[in-house]
Amino acid sequence: MKPLSIMLSMLIIGFTSSTVMAEGVNTPSASLPNVSPANSDLVNRGAYIARAADCMACHGEDYTGGVAIETPMGDIYATNITPSKRYGIGNYTEADLKKALQQGRAPDHMIYPAMPYPSYNGMKDEDVSALFAYLQTVPVVDEAPEYKTDLPFPFNFRTLMLGWNAINIPSTENREGLTQTQQRGEYLVNNLAHCGTCHTPRNSTMGFDKDNYLSGAQLGTWYAPNITPDKSSGIGNWSEQDIITYLRTGELDQRVFAGGPMGEVVAHSTRYLKDADLNAIASYLKAVPAVRTDDKIHPVDASRLPTPINESITHDLLAQKDYLAQAKADVSGGSNSPEALYLAACGSCHGVDGYGQPDARYAPIVGLSSIRRNNPDGLINVILHGINGATNTSPKMPGFSEELSSQQIAGITNYVRVNFGSLASSNVSAADVDKVIASEPEQPFLIKYAGLLAIIGIIVAIVIIIFIIRTIIRSRRHR
Ligand code: HEC
Ligand code: HEC
Ligand code: HEC
């Protein structure tokens, strides 16, 4: 197992540079793009809207675009939205921006729903104005993104979006009887921060399934969990303060960690929000209807969690070296014991006892919700594919699909769920891991943002239209 030596060296490099790694993390600094006392209030407000609406997740921190949104039909690339006249939106009027955001219509073409305009549809005019003023102050970058969207026929026919928009917009409804704070939260969740884009499952037209609003949805190899206030499968046991802390820092000690796409949401957007806005989001999430799903979360049984071996070993990965070296020897000697496998493959970062090395942002994984779910697929996927950490500057978690067999991954999955998740038992088999691996290519939804599924709805629509036309033609011939 060669990667082990790499990991061990990472461990050491990681250890010595832990101060560097700790930087820029967990610091909800006031650093908003281009916010400055020299700017007008309107511009500064626009900068804040851009954060709340997370334009940077796709258009980049410098707004030059280029981020690929994967779809079964091909990649859709976010465009340059700096005020460049040639490559960006320098020729946009405020009315143009309003149409693009609220209706998905650029001046000369329809925009694909990879851009979350179904959510921005409810964006207030005054917020669009602020955003427009702000986008004028962004440094011009006269460059096209490296790649250009080029979907095959018929998806290159952008006018098709008109039909989809007609049935799927507006994508959410405003609830009755909310307090003012909750109304603000609703606006943030539904419109600006577009949380439902990932957390709400899709219906047959690939619009939002409104009855199961925010109750969880598959996102490629990630799963965006149920965030309704259901106690067994959602976040009903979280306090409002828990929600605020999670959105601010990306974690709740020994309970949740914001990985993958959610890590990006925190990194680019929610950690910058004002306390009052995070509070509004939390208050609103408590007021949405609870939806119960099968994917129950096992409560943490504190008595079953590992005790940190000792304070210094938990915080000093170097002191764990001997354990890891022994595990490495065992595994190369053919040991398939889940504990040795865990130590060999994961221990160098997550620690011999799962407590990681928090100071260096080696994530502790003890007690995390993602390892306590009924459905182990999320954890299996994390082990298969790793995590391209966003809130985190320490070494990224690698994927193990090449190095470990399905049997070994199943063993580690069970080990982690039982020992660190405090589950009474876990019976993931090699066949279960194979199933997760096999489901990938078939899963046409290898996409970063589920909004794109919309496009599949269009295929369905086209097929239906062709079918109807054929039926009409045939019935005429038969006359
Ligand atoms: C989830 C990813 C995502 C987010 C978030 C997002 N965009 Fe986009 N945006 C895209 C993609 C992808 C395209 C290109 C779509 C296409 O090719 O049809 C796009 C296109 C656009 C366009 C059209 C440009 C043109 O003329 O072709 C504008 C304007 C725009 N975005 C502005 C914004 C603003 C402002 C925000 C924040 C309020 C934002 N976007 C947030 C993905 C995103
Ligand atoms: C780009 C997709 C995406 C968007 C947008 C998004 N989320 Fe998430 N969210 C995820 C994923 C994926 C996870 C699971 C992360 C993990 O397992 O590490 C998650 C996890 C969470 C969790 C933890 C749930 C649990 O039980 O562990 C909460 C709470 C949450 N999101 C709230 C929000 C809120 C509020 C918003 C809007 C402000 C939002 N999310 C926007 C994808 C997204
Ligand atoms: C090179 C270091 C490294 C190794 C090796 C590693 N991880 Fe990780 N892991 C991380 C980091 C860093 C994170 C935090 C994710 C991020 O950066 O956003 C993480 C996150 C996780 C999470 C939390 C996922 C979530 O979003 O809730 C789990 C579970 C996990 N790792 C399990 C494992 C297992 C099991 C192994 C061994 C098969 C392993 N890791 C190996 C670095 C590592």
List keywords for this structure.
479 residues; mainly alpha; Cytochrome Bc1 Complex, Chain D, domain 2; 3 domains; two-stranded antiparallel sheet; two-stranded antiparallel ribbon; 20 helices; 8 strands; binds heme C
Task: Write structural notes for this entry.
- The chain has 479 residues and is mainly α.
- It has three domains: 2-17 and 298-442, Cytochrome Bc1 Complex, Chain D, domain 2, CATH 1.10.760; 32-154, Cytochrome Bc1 Complex, Chain D, domain 2 (Orthogonal Bundle), CATH 1.10.760; 172-295, Cytochrome Bc1 Complex, Chain D, domain 2 (Orthogonal Bundle), CATH 1.10.760.
- It is built from 20 helices and eight strands.
- The chain is globular, with a radius of gyration of 24 Å.
- The chain binds heme C (3 copies).
- One heme C binds at residues 189, 193-195, 197-199, 219, 222, 224-225, 227, 235, 243, 246, 256-262, 265, 270, 281, 369-370, 449.
Summarize the structure.
Helices cover 44% and strands 5% of the residues.
SSE order and pairing:
Elements: H1 2-16, H2 18-22, H3 41-52, H4 55-59, E1 68-71, E2 74-77, H5 94-103, E3 105-106, E4 109-110, H6 117-120, H7 125-137, H8 161-168, H9 180-192, H10 196-199, E5 217-219, E6 222-224, H11 240-249, E7 251-252, E8 256-257, H12 260-268, H13 275-287, H14 311-315, H15 321-332, H16 338-350, H17 377-385, H18 406-419, H19 430-442, H20 454-478
Antiparallel strand pairs: 1-2, 3-4, 5-6, 7-8
- How many structural domains are formed by the residues? 3
The general outline is globular
Share in helix: 40-55%
The fourth-level CATH homologous superfamily of the largest domain is Cytochrome c-like domain
Question: What percent of residues are in strands?
Answer: under 5%
Structural class: mainly alpha
- Tell me the radius of gyration: 24 Å
Number of helices: 20
Count of distinct strands: 8
CATH class category label of the largest domain: Mainly Alpha
What is the overall pLDDT average? 83
The largest sheet is: 2 strands, antiparallel
Terminal Cα separation, in Å?
73 Å
What is the CATH architecture descriptor of the largest domain?
Answer: Orthogonal Bundle
- Spatial order of strands in the largest sheet: 1-2
Low-confidence stretches: 1-30, 441-451
Ligands bound to this protein structure = heme C
Helix-strand topology string: HHHHEEHEEHHHHHEEHEEHHHHHHHHH
CATH topology of the largest domain: Cytochrome Bc1 Complex, Chain D, domain 2
